[in-house]
User: Fold this.
Amino acid sequence: MAPLTDSKKTCEVSEKPRRSKIWQALQTVKDPEIPVVSLVEMGIVRDVTLTERGEAIVYITPTFSGCPALHVMQRDIKERLAEIGCKSVAIEIRLSPPWSSNWISDEAREKLRQFGLAPPPRHHGDFIGLADISTAVCPRCDSTNNTLKNSFGPTLCRAIWYCHDCQDAFEQFKPL
Assistant:
């Protein structure tokens, strides 16, 4: 497709291919704390819009409002989109609705498990069920014969468990 004639535009293709190309690029931006999954797979990237001037606006919802990796995510998104020709990228952080572990894709859940991090159970808004974190499935041996050792893991979104069957500790992404 021919470049847009307005010299103030920052992209050179029509809107649909640009959005598609942007989403494809965002699929490659990894979570800084869990590098086997992308920010899209984790449900952190919520939407992308393009302004009339060609600016890409990426809407993200971090797993926690005080996420220590937030600045790294913003930087990585801007760098990746610059690589595909987006000259102007804005990141808008949305805290409402709050991020939910239900937003993690099925593919990401499997990648988390293979990485050795137990994925959170789907809760579908059952907050009573959320309060009961008495079970976790070991990502190494699929056992449920586990004990919660610490509800505060290396990050706010993880807990530490011990598997009595394979005798190994593992982290579980908390259901939120």
